[in-house]
Amino acid sequence: MLPYFPPAYPDELLYSLLARFHRHVGETSPKRTLDVLFGNRSVRAGVLLQGHLQALSERLPPQRELTPERLLADFTLYPYLTAFQPADVRLAVRNALFLGHAEWITVRLGLAASRVQRATALRYCPACRPQMLARYGELYWRRDHQLPGVTVCPEHGARLRDSTVCPGTIGQHSFIAADEDNCPQVSSGAQDDASIAWMVAKRCAQLLRSPPAPMSLNEWGEYYHQQLRQRGFGKGEDRIDQRRLNRDFASWSGEPEMLGTESWLAAVARKHRKAFHPLQHVLLGLFLDAQAPVAEASPFGLGPWPCRNPLAEHYGRPMVQLAGTHHGGGKLIGQFSCSCGYVFSLAAVPGSKPRILDLGPLFQQRLRQLVAEGAGLRATARALGVDPGTVRLHAERLGLDVPWTPLKPRPHVPRSPRVACPQPPPRDPVPRRDWPVLDGQLCGALRAEAKRIKALSPPTRASAAILQRQFGRRDWLASRISKLPMTARALAEEAESVEQFRLRRIVWAAEELRRRNLPLKSWRLRRLAGLPDQASPQVEAALKAYEGP
C-alpha cells in the first residue's frame, strides 16, 4: 500500500496523476515507479487509456476510493471512446483495461483505422496554464485537452497547443508530468462561443462526464435514419437524400471536406455495419440539433400520437408509437400501437380512416363487466365506444352469456356446379399457417427474449427494434400484425422506452454501488447508469429518492 499518492486535480488525466507521483517522490527510474504503482515493470504508460487498473487500485490508499471503475470512468478517455459502442464492447474493453495491456483495444474500437487522428504530443490550453499555476502551484494534463479531433479548450475556447512531450518518442514506460518548460507560455486567442470547434469541444467533454446509454449498431443506425427523416432529409418512402445532406452539412460546418464528409456521413445515415468515431457522432448530433423538425418529413407526421382507446386513462394523450410500416393496395400502411394494447393501422393518404386491429385487454375486461351487469346491447356499445355489431362479435368470441339476442349462424349456401372442362392436374396444396398457434408461439418467444435481455448486467435496453429482430427480416411482424394480435400486444408491453430503461439502470447502479460499499450519491448513480446531466422529471426524482433527504 502506498503511503503517499497526490490529490487529483479537476478532470486530470490518469497519465498526469501517475506522472506527478513519479515527480513528487523524487524517483528517477521509470521502471521502479511502475514496480511501485503496478507491481509490474512491463506495464505500458497509456495516455488515452491505461491498462492494469486493478493492480494499480489495490496499491492506492483505500480512503481515496480510487477503485478500478472510478479510475477508468473519471481519469481516462474510456467514457468518450466507448460512448457509442454496444454494451458488450464496453464490457470487453473495461475488463481488458482492468486486468492487462489490451493492445487490441484501438482496433476493437475502430480507432486504428479512423480518419480522426490523435495528436502526437500531449496538449495544453494557454488560458488554463496561468490558472493552474495560481491555484495549484503546478501544471497538469487535462483529459478534455487530449480528446482526438478536439482543437480548442472546452472551457475557454482557446486553441490547444502541442507540448514538447511526445509519448511515442520518449519510451513506452515513462510518465512525463506537465511543467513550465514542456508547456511554454504562448498567447491564447479568444474564440466565438458559437464556432463549430468550440461546440464540438463542449459536446465531447460532456461525453466524458455523461456518456449515453449503450445501444447496438443497428439501433444507432435506425436512430439517425429516423432523426434525418424527421428533419426533412427523407427521399421516397424509406431513403435519405444524401446529396442534400452533404450540401447542408457542409454549409453548416463551413468546411466542405470536414473529415472526408461524403464518405462517413453517407455511411452514418445508412445501416451501421461498423462503429464510427465518437467525433463523427458528435458532429452529426450537433448538425441535427441545428435543424428544425419538419412534420411533413414523415407521411404520418411526428409522433408520438394520441391514444384512441376511450377506455384508457391516458385517452387523447400522446402515447401511441409507430410500430412499423408495410404496403397494401398500392398504399403505405402504418401500424400504430399503444402501451394499453390498442392497435390500429392507417394509410398514408389524406382522409384515411384508422382500422382497428386490436381493442386491447381493457375492452375485454369492460365487456365482461357490462355483460355481467346485464347491460343492453346498445348501452354496452355506447359504453365501449364501438358499434353494436362489434360488441356482438367479441361477445361471441369470448363465449359470454349475453342478455341480448345472439348472432344467428349463417346458413351454408353450396356453390352451384360448374360445367366440367379439361383441367391441369392439381398441384400439391401449400400448407397454410395456423396463425392463432403461431401467434401464441411468437408471443411466448418475444416475452422470453424480453426477460432474457432485461436480466443482463449491465442492463441492456429491450427496445422494440431488438425484440422484433428475432422474427427475421425487417418489418416481418409489422406486415403480419393483424394476424398476430397477442404478439403485437406483447411487443407493446415488453418494449422499453428510453425513460423506462433509465429507471432500470438507476436500480442496477444502486445495487452495484451497494455491492462495492460506496455511498449512494446522485452523481455516482448518474455516472454509473450513464444518464445525461438533465433527464426527465421521473428519472431525476428516482435519483433523489435513492440519495434520500
Describe the structure.
Helix content is 42%, strand content 7%. The protein is α+β, with helices and mostly antiparallel strands and 549 residues long. It has four domains: 149 residues, no CATH class; 83 residues, no CATH class; 120 residues, no CATH class; 49 residues. The chain is built from 22 helices and nine strands. It is elongated, with a radius of gyration of 30 Å.
Number of distinct helices: 22
Number of domains: 4
Structural class designation: alpha+beta
Separation, N- and C-terminal Cα atoms: 36 Å
Task: Based on Cα principal axes, name the global outline.
Answer: elongated
What is the number of beta strands? Answer: 9
Give the proportion of residues in helices: 40-55%
Strand order, biggest sheet?
Answer: 5-6-7-8-9
Please give a handful of descriptors for the protein shown.
alpha+beta, 42% helix, five-stranded antiparallel beta sheet, 549 residues
Note the topology.
Layout: H1 14-24, H2 30-38, H3 53-59, H4 68-75, H5 78-81, H6 87-99, H7 105-108, E1 123-124, H8 128-136, E2 161-162, H9 196-209, H10 217-230, E3 234-235, E4 239-240, H11 242-253, H12 261-269, H13 278-289, E5 305-306, E6 318-328, E7 331-337, E8 343-347, E9 355-358, H14 361-373, H15 377-384, H16 388-398, H17 435-454, H18 464-468, H19 485-494, H20 498-515, H21 522-529, H22 537-547
Antiparallel strand pairs: 1-2, 3-4, 5-6, 6-7, 7-8, 8-9
